[in-house]
Amino acid sequence: MRPILTLLSVLFISSPAYAAELPEMDAEAIIAAVNTRDDGQQLTRKFKVELTNRSGKTRTEEMVAFRRYFGDEKRTVIFYTEPTRVRGTGFLTFDYADPKADDDQWLYLPALRKVRRISASDRGDYFLGTDFTYEEIKKEQKVQDTDYVFESVGTGMLDGSEVYIVKGIPANDDTARELGVSYVVWRIDPEIWMTRKTEYYDRNGNLARTITLEGYDTIDGYLTATKLRAENHKTGHSSVFTFDDSDYETDVSDRIFSQARLRRGL
Amino acid sequence: MSFFHKLIHLRWPVIGLAFIVIGATVIGLPRLTKDTTADAFIDPDSPALVYKAKVEEAFGITDPIVIALINRDANGVFDPISLKIIRKLTDEVGALPYVDPDLVVSLATENNIVGTNDGLIVEGFLEANTQGFRSPVGTMARGEEIRNAIADFPLYSGSLVAENGSASLIVAEILDEDRAQETYDAVMALVEATALPNGVELHVAGEGAVAGYLSTYIDADASRLNPLAATIITLILILAFRSMRAAIVSNLIVLATVLGSFGLMGLSGTSFFVITNGLLVNLIGIAVADSIHVLSAFYAVRRTAPYMPQRDAVAEAMRRMWRPITLTSGTTIAGFLALSVSSVMPPVSAFGLFGAIGVFLAWIYSMTLLPALLSVWPSQRVPAIFRSSRKADTFQRIMQGVGRRILSAPCVVVGTTLFVFVVSVIGASQLVVDEDRINNFQRSEPVYVADKAINAEMDGIYALDVLVEGAEAEALYQPELLRRIEALQSYMETLPGVNGTSSVVDYVKQLHRAVNEGDPAFYTIPDDPDLIAQLFFLYGASADPTDFEEEVDYDYQRALVRASVDNGRHTNNKVIVPALEAYLQDKFDSDAAYGTATGRVSVNYYWIDGIERSNLASVLLSLAAVTLVAMLIFRSAVVGSLAALPVFFAVLLVYAIMGFMGIPLGVGTSMFAAIAIGLSVDFAVHTMDRLREIGRMFGLTVDTLQAFYPETGRALFFNFIAVAGGFGVLATSSVPPLVKFGSLVAVAVTVAFLISITLLPTLAVWLKPRALQACPITETSYATDPHSA
């Protein structure tokens, strides 16, 4: 009986008829649905970053982050708590809604006792030495819809969930160069309207990175990613972000997003 | 019935069996794999190679392909057109398959890190929207800004852009090193397709490019010339014997030997190295010599006994030749095995081993297949020159004349030999050990021009590395260790050929200065370990996660210090590597900081040093083995020593000519002596064997030894002409190593031939060694009047 069941289940799961149970949606509508997810006005959370190189060596960093929207502008401040030698290092960012406008960034190095303004990073640059790019961190699982021309590739199964598969090709050469990709494939779970797996292909069309949503939760009514993994297939380096103690309720003072506060620390 | 009668009786089974064996060994041919890397020459367990692999693993470094743009105008590479070309090529090279677009480094990819009054700017030199650079991309003013920025950035000056601004590099790491050749070709195509204004040059070089290209370059020429050599040898065989039978049968023996040896090489999993081309030459020379001697004896028999049945004539020829051929094979095998055992380099060891196997196969085939084929050959025709009715042919007459003169002027022979000996010793004493892979290319080859041009303008593309290991993780946060590394870099910069160094310390100093408003006074190592840790963090935060991987490992415990050397010459390497090692022994030999020299330069040093140390010992051992075997087979120390003389002179002359002509002893040229031994010992043993035969029957006098020349002397002459002529063809090659190879092989066999026909008979008459004459022979010998031949 069991082999028959297995056979049936294989046929059933891999059958297009089954996958087609998801209502057809065009790619733009899927991306629009992803982008409508509410992030909350403010957020306080801890996060842990585990970086692993190709020989399997691991480094761990821990930080506390505050984020708040000021209209369309998003301000973020991150304070490092681990490792000890960088404890107190702070990173303040003002992200402007206009993708063409350069963000403002400041860094505080406690051993130097100085706040330094640092030049805006390219959107495709890696975020604080991790395998995530600034763009991915800034968009928090959403997609800048003006960057790509989207195409629906169909539907599929991923870890037991039905997903929409959407492919995006950079809208122009400048964007392709800035983001360092030739195309991106998102696997979007319509249950949560979050991308469960995103594959980035480099400018030669080789699979460069994969970002996987490994945990999520509804916290204070907001759907929140709690664990994300980014793997760089060319360097063998990977980064895992684990978010804890996410809190959308407690007020985040606007004064925390200042150079003076950066200097003072947590 | 003698052994050879029995063998000829079973000729068809013998031929069938031989072809089965040949077929079985040929199965191994497709399994042969090429390994033309420089690293193949080093024992895989050698510390230098182990460390290089460790460094490559830890720091993710491969041998790259380097493109240089050179513009010697006043604006140098900073003029807008040059910068545009750099940007265009960077994009195009990044788009090539097998090139990692994220690991292409050039002015178009690198960031300028500069301190301002309130902060820090990290931005691309050729980026469009910049805060630090005010002028738009594509203007002269932007070029000037970049020039000033580079001048203020010691890490890039000299390594990414020439100090005088005349050159700039695009460095591409290859994803799959086995694709180096394809990648080089693709890069060359891009470069050739780029329109260049007057005064701008593009060059492509780098170890990644050289390795692949070298093998193709040599193979292409060898595959053109080896068939030419085979054709010439065949023509000489036809000339010697005026018989297609001789040419075809000899070529079959050569083919069987070569296919067998290389097939076994494939079956054993041994790679085909660059120098294995030389083994091919050696085996052809040895196999053809065996055939020439058997055929000479065969026709000599037909000449003296024209009515003897063909099969009996073959058996008789074999009866006469099995002994000298077995003896030459034994001595040659001894020489090859000694080379195999004594060499420290795996390709040379393989050369010795498969040389010995090849000689053995040539012997087996000459003893079995050759007589079987001769006995089944349909034609009974005896070439006109060997018919008894005819007088001696031209070559016999020439050799007879030569013989008369030689034997009548012993003082001239010995005096000339002594003179040659003295001159050769002087020449050989001038021999130097050196190797620079780039010299394997003709001076007009793009890769040669590129190497010289880039090394003249930049710090150098040859890497001498030091792996510095701290006691524990985060050791590199300690200012004390960083200062020691700084001192190490200063020391390395004093070494000849070293024009610049880089390490993580340079980044720390640059960042320290940048976070202090760009004040040059802060281009120092901070005193606070926390600040160092935070500067590392700052760098990490502004770069790719693996960007730093080439300078420091993940735990901040190990750092790579890299010096750029502007030449790859061993004569330079053997100064700087031991000097650096002595420094490391002195300053970096504790648990707190342990330093090891590594990198391409260090590996090459050990590789060539191995040749320097082992070559002489290896050649001497090989010579000694040959002499010892000759002594054993002739059961006489004197005769054995005499037999070693042609070999000794061949080797000495090869070294002397190399010394006089300034040809250094290097990887390829170190093989010449071994090849000389392999080819020249045949002349000596055939000569001594024939001298003994004559001596035993008729005594050793000027008169009796005249008989040596018409048959054996003639055979040796054609043996010499075939090998020297065949491989002298290589001297017309366009590849410098093959030219040297061909000429020196020709020199070696010429010397061996000349010494064999002049000095050996002269000394035999003078010394009258007992082993050459005494003895009542028990064999029912083929006794003819020596003058009848």
Description:
The complex is a heterodimer of chains A (266) and B (789). Chain A is of the alpha+beta class and 266 residues long. Chain A has a single domain (22-264), classed as Lipoprotein localisation LolA/LolB/LppX (outer membrane lipoprotein receptor (LolB), chain A, Clam). Chain A has 6 helices and 13 strands. Chain A has helices at residues 2-14, 16-19, 27-35, 134-139, 173-179, 259-264, and strands spanning 42-52, 58-70, 73-82, 90-95, 104-109, 114-118, 148-158, 161-170, 183-189, 194-201, 207-219, 222-232, 238-247. Chain B is an alpha+beta fold. Among the domains of chain B are: 1-31 and 243-378, Multidrug efflux transporter AcrB transmembrane fold (Up-down Bundle), CATH 1.20.1640; 64-205, no CATH class. In chain B, 60% of the residues lie in helices and 8% in strands. Chain B contains 25 helices and 10 strands. The radius of gyration of chain B is 33 Å and the shape is elongated. The two termini of chain B are 26 Å apart. Chain A binds chain B through residues 51, 53, 55, 57, 59, 83, 85-86, 89, 91, 102, 106-107, 109-112, 114, 116-119, 121, 126, 128-131, 180, 202-204, 208, 232, 234-235, 237, 239, and chain B through 57-58, 60, 94-97, 100-102, 116, 118-123, 129, 131-132, 175, 474, 477, 515, 526, 528-531, 533-535, 537-538, 540-546, 549, 553-555. Strand 6 of chain A pairs parallel with strand 4 (119-124) of chain B.
